[in-house]
């Protein structure tokens, strides 16, 4: 079995982490039990480009249980848990190509290794895998039945591909499924981003001015949790509806150029490029922490920050780089501007990833069941699959809900009964 990981000797630690996460992923376990019996992915070759974490390990275990021949590579150079990668290779015989902190050349070499698996189905977190296949592997386009996309940034890229007519196979936007974005993005990103910031800096959030760039589902979760820990939260936005929502949720809303003058901490969660730029660095307070929880490391204009610095001190703490500016101010960049929740922490808690990865597994099955019926477009899963995941999650939490009576169903489907 071919693989490329840091150290196979880390497997014992990694297995403990995988099994610890598994106990908090009851929906995915149920799917894995069914997949083990039914083998819905039998003989299908799958290449997955995802964050290599304990939660992801339980997803690829589920795919393998369903009969898939699966390989895994990292979707971000800093997001790999090396012990988990080792355990997947040694204990579960799943090839992994990922090393935490790998350089750009190694990152794309590992993506190439996953592509050379010659997949029928791909699974992505950021669309790097699909982009490489579309640009450089035309011989694979016809054999790929479909792909799944896990994150907002990836969906944005894939919809642009669809618009430009370059998408060559159907894609399921797992990120746009309610059981993913309403929970994973809000509760997962909200908690894990603060976890990464605190681990990296040991900062006390209470009383700090905390700027959140973007008020999508990730930004909402982050703003809510930062406020819950006593921070004075400012939101910046370009969307008037989201800005209005943030204001009505009780947050201060202002332009970034004004917000950074007050900020002790700034975190970007937009999915766009250069949200923090030269003009912002020039007016930031001394000691400001700068970080990103969007998928790619482009939200912070790091070259501009480097050009302003007279001195750069790497790793003044783990995952903290110090930039000394000409006037003596010091700005601190966390996790190299990459995903701070995975670069400096462990990513989302297993309990919330349970729904996201259950959705990924069922999306794979859906693509196979609908082989030849889907166009070269970006799709969202049918509502009945979302509902099934939600009902299963409620069941595992010991929660029951009401059902509509026949009278209520009739009323909701009729226009004849009025005031």
UniProtKB/TrEMBL annotation:
The keyword Lyase does not apply. Its EC number is 3.13.2.1. Transmembrane segments: none annotated. InterPro entries: Adenosylhomocyst_ase-like_sf, Adenosylhomocysteinase-like, Ado_hCys_hydrolase_NAD-bd, NAD(P)-bd_dom_sf, S-Ado-L-homoCys_hydrolase_CS. It is found in: Cytoplasm. GO terms for cellular component: cytosol. May play a key role in the regulation of the intracellular concentration of adenosylhomocysteine. The gene is ahcY. Belongs to the adenosylhomocysteinase family. PROSITE patterns: ADOHCYASE_1, ADOHCYASE_2. Residues 185-347 form the S-adenosyl-L-homocysteine hydrolase NAD binding domain. Its cofactor is NAD(+). Coiled coil: none annotated. GO terms for biological process: L-homocysteine biosynthetic process; one-carbon metabolic process; S-adenosylmethionine cycle. This is Adenosylhomocysteinase. Pathway: Amino-acid biosynthesis; L-homocysteine biosynthesis; L-homocysteine from S-adenosyl-L-homocysteine: step 1/1. It comes from the Bacteria. Substrate binds at residues 53, 125, 150, 180, 184.
């Amino acid at each position: 079995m071919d693989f490329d990981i840091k150290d196979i000797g880390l497997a014992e630690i990694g297995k403990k982490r995988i099994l610890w996460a598994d106990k908090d992923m009851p929906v995915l376990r149920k799917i894995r039990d069914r997949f083990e019996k039914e083998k819905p992915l039998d003989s299908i070759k799958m290449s997955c480009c995802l964050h290599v974490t304990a939660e992801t390990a339980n997803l690829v275990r589920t795919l393998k249980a369903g009969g898939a021949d699966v390989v895994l590579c990292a979707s971000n150079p800093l997001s790999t848990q090396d012990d988990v990668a080792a355990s997947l290779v040694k204990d579960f015989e799943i090839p992994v190509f990922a090393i935490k902190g790998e350089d750009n050349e190694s990152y794309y070499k590992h993506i190439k290794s996953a592509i050379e698996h010659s997949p029928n189905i791909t699974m992505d977190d950021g669309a790097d895998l699909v982009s490489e296949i579309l640009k450089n592997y035309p011989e694979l386009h016809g054999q790929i039945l479909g792909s799944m996309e896990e994150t907002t940034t990836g969906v944005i890229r894939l919809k642009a591909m669809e618009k430009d007519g370059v998408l060559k196979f159907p894609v399921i936007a797992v990120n746009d499924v309610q059981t993913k974005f309403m929970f994973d993005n809000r509760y997962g990103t909200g908690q894990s981003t603060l976890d990464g910031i605190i681990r990296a800096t040991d900062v006390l959030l209470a009383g700090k001015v905390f700027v959140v760039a973007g008020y999508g589902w990730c930004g909402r979760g982050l703003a809510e949790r930062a406020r819950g820990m006593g921070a004075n939260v400012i939101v910046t936005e370009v969307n008037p509806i989201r800005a209005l929502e943030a204001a009505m949720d009780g947050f201060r809303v202002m332009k970034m150029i004004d917000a950074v003058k007050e900020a002790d901490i700034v975190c970007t969660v937009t999915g766009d490029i250069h949200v923090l730029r030269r003009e912002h660095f020039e007016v930031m307070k001394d000691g400001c922490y700068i970080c990103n929880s969007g998928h790619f490391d482009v939200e912070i204009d790091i070259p501009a920050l480097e050009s302003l610095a007279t001195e750069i001190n790497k790793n003044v703490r783990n995952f903290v780089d110090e930039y000394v500016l000409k006037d003596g101010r010091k700005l601190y960049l966390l996790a190299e501007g990459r995903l701070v929740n995975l670069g400096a922490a462990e990513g989302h808690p297993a309990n919330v990833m349970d729904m996201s990865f259950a959705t990924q597994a069922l999306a794979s099955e859906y693509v196979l069941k609908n082989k030849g019926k889907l166009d070269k477009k970006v799709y969202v899963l049918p509502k009945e699959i979302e509902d099934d995941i939600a009902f299963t999650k409620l069941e595992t939490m010991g929660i029951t809900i009401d059902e509509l009576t026949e009278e209520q169903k009739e009323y909701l489907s009729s226009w004849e009964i009025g005031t």
